[in-house]
């Protein structure tokens, strides 16, 4: 069993979130970062607000670019991470009884100065996103470069730097959060663990 899985389940059960360093090793992160096609702006789309029925592009709310991924066509270094997500789903189902069935993920790029204002990941019209999972890919990130994930908890805010190999997992229906502007490009694989099979129409 992956040694991180129990810590993730415990954090979710006790606090609604977990922050795990080195969920991917430096070698595994490096292999993803070498995939130039993945981060090529020509292969990415502006991210929108809302689900597929009500998608809108609003730069004043979010400024990231995305590239949807799936287990069938993803490059091998990304499949390493996706396989780990499959294993995490199995473990969480056994330990927390969430009946998770699938995930949807995209590669995410925030150009310098962009952000994503405070929001919940679960849609009002669609409650199938149960857990959010963000894997960061940014090497040698410094606090003064900004770009933190700010989570709004019951009694405090928590800022988490997007350091390479770090996984943040949290309740999609409970924890509001935002992405703060950064002075450098900010990369992640952002996804959601679902209680139904993922729809492929946005891929």
**Helix and strand composition category:** alpha+beta
Strand content: 25-35%
Order of SSEs, N→C? HEHHEEHEEEEEEEE
**What kind of sheet is the major sheet?**
7 strands, antiparallel
Write down how many β-strands occur, each being a DSSP E stretch of 2 or more residues: 11
Would you state the CATH class? Answer: Mainly Beta
Head-to-tail CA distance between termini: 31 Å
- Helix content percent band: 10-25%
Integer tally of domains:
1
- Rounded to an integer, what's the Rg over CA atoms? 16 Å
Number of helical regions? 4
In the CATH hierarchy, the architecture is Sandwich
User: Numbering strands along the chain, what is their spatial order in the largest sheet?
Assistant: 1-9-6-11-4-3-2
* CATH topology term: Jelly Rolls
Contiguous runs where pLDDT drops below 50 for at least 5 residues: 53-57
Mean pLDDT: 91
């Amino acid at each position: 069993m992956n040694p991180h899985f129990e810590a993730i389940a415990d954090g979710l059960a006790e606090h609604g979130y977990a922050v795990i360093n080195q969920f991917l090793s430096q070698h595994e992160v490096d292999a993803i970062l070498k995939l130039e096609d993945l981060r090529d702006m020509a292969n990415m789309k502006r991210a929108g607000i809302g689900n597929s029925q009500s998608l809108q592009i609003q730069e004043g709310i979010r400024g990231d670019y995305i590239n949807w991924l799936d287990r069938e066509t993803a490059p091998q270094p990304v499949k390493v991470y996706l396989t780990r997500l499959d294993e995490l789903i199995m473990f969480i189902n056994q330990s927390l009884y969430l009946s998770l069935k699938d995930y949807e993920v995209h590669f995410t790029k925030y150009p310098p100065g962009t952000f994503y204002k405070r929001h919940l990941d679960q849609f009002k019209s669609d409650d199938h996103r149960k857990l959010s999972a963000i894997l960061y890919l940014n090497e040698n990130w410094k606090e003064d470069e900004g770009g933190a994930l700010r989570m709004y908890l019951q009694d405090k805010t928590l800022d988490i730097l997007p350091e390479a190999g770090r996984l943040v997992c949290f309740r999609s229906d409970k924890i509001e959060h935002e992405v703060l502007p950064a002075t450098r490009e900010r990369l992640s694989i952002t996804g959601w663990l679902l209680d139904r099979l993922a729809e492929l129409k946005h891929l």
